[in-house]
Design goal:
Blueprint: E1 51-55, E2 61-65, E3 77-81, E4 86-93, H1 97-104, E5 115-120, H2 123-149, E6 155-161, E7 167-173, H3 181-191, E8 194-199, H4 202-209, H5 220-223, H6 233-238, H7 245-248, H8 263-269, E9 280-281, E10 286-293, E11 298-303, E12 306-314, H9 315-326, H10 339-350, H11 364-384
Parallel strand pairs: 2-5, 7-8
Antiparallel strand pairs: 1-2, 1-4, 3-4, 3-5, 6-7, 9-10, 10-11, 11-12
Length: 390
């Protein structure tokens, strides 16, 4: 699924995606839905669902109704209806899966959001749209300069032109409310187009721009993730991660969304573990929690005052000690339940020494080498000897 700009050049070197994965041909599609019903034929008497999904720049997708006489396929460029002018987008999904996507995004069939497709785009309209797309980086840079001149605390992250070039949408992020009325006037005068400002969150900005995460893969928000749930520091605490903002934060500056992926598994596993503030009462002293391994079911405790020596205990042993403490009974010490002492004792018990002297020869390879050399010398001597023809 790569476009012409991602293919190899004549010398075999990759050309690379000049639009950073958001090219106009849409082969490097974001939030792609695989049409697993595409090769299946409809039953007799059933009509094809007349609403399709159309994608515009980056991850912006909308639903449009098809005219009765128009047949489109995935990848076709179509002209969509707008109040003032028209827009150009690419068909990314057709058929019954569009109905599921509308239900997922809570869009009804009679909603005002569902507009009409006018026709397929011709080559002249495609060239015109591509010329506007090529102007977007330059206009974005100029708009940032105008915002800096007005001392506005905002960040213009992306620009999207309408298909006919009459309007441009500027996406920005800001921590506080921004009065950009003068900025709109300056940009409308400088670019001679209609301006629309749309504020987005930091996570939405990362999904539009895309990038590579610390895991080495593309960002989840720009490939498949659509539900941006809030992530709190408790998710890192449940997973026993160090609260280092440089490691826990993503490219958007917020906590990584992947902290929620395994949170339920950790929370269900921690139900069998005692609380971290539970102290173990022994005759040798009071033991305090240090760390745990949830999947191996192991916990480390140390005595108060002897913080350097940690004792590795199993979960069953800790629960046994806690049960005795509830009955006002104390165990002798943690060493009785230590996994490390049991492992070393069993290792020394099972260790058997053997005499390996004389089992193998160290110069076995040298002897084979000498034999081959002697054979080669004999052959060479026989070749040098003159033959008697008499």
């Amino acid at each position: 699924m790569s476009c012409a700009s991602c293919s190899n050049s004549g010398s075999g070197e990759p050309r690379g995606c000049k639009s950073n994965g958001t090219c106009g041909t849409d082969s490097c599609n974001k939030l792609t839905v695989f049409d697993w019903l595409g090769n299946m034929q409809l039953p007799k008497g059933e009509k094809r669902f007349n609403i399709v999904e159309v994608r515009f720049k980056n991850s912006r997708k909308e639903f449009f109704t098809l005219p009765d006489h128009l047949q489109v396929a995935v990848g076709d460029l179509v002209i969509t209806q707008l109040e003032n002018g028209y827009d150009l987008g690419m068909v990314t999904l057709t058929g019954e899966l569009v109905r599921f996507q509308m239900k997922k995004k809570k869009v009804t069939l009679d909603s005002e959001e569902v507009k009409n497709i006018l026709r397929k785009a011709n080559q002249k309209e495609i060239d015109k749209w591509q010329s506007f797309r090529d102007r977007e980086p330059e206009i974005q840079k100029r708009a940032r300069q105008l915002a800096i001149a007005l001392k506005l605390e905002m960040k213009l992250s992306d620009v999207e032109f309408q298909g006919d070039g009459r309007k441009a949408t500027f996406y920005y992020t800001a921590e506080q409310r921004v009065d950009f009325r003068q900025l709109i006037k300056d940009m409308a005068q400088a670019f001679n187009i209609r301006i629309e400002m749309r504020q987005i969150g930091l996570r939405q900005e990362a999904s539009r721009l895309g990038g590579i995460g610390s895991c080495g893969r593309e960002l989840c928000c720009s490939t498949w993730l659509t539900d941006y749930r809030s992530v709190s520091t408790s998710a890192a605490r449940y997973q026993l991660l160090s609260l280092n903002p440089q490691k826990l934060a993503g490219q958007c500056g917020k906590l990584k969304c992947c902290l929620n992926y395994e949170l339920d598994a950790y929370r269900s596993a921690l139900k069998n573990f005692p609380k971290t503030d539970t102290k173990l009462q022994t005759e040798k002293g009071i033991a305090v929690f240090q760390k745990m391994d949830i999947f191996k079911e192991q916990i480390w405790y140390t005595y108060k005052g002897d913080w350097m020596n940690w004792h590795q205990l199993s979960l069953s042993s800790v629960n046994e000690i806690i049960a005795k403490n509830k009955k006002n009974e104390k165990v002798a010490s943690l060493e009785e339940f230590s996994l490390e002492l049991k492992a070393t004792a069993s290792a020394t018990k099972d260790l058997i020494f053997e005499n390996v002297v004389g089992q193998d020869s160290l110069n076995r390879f040298d002897q084979q080498k000498n034999k081959t050399n002697k054979n080669k010398k004999r052959r060479n001597r026989n070749k040098k000897k003159p033959r008697n023809n008499a």
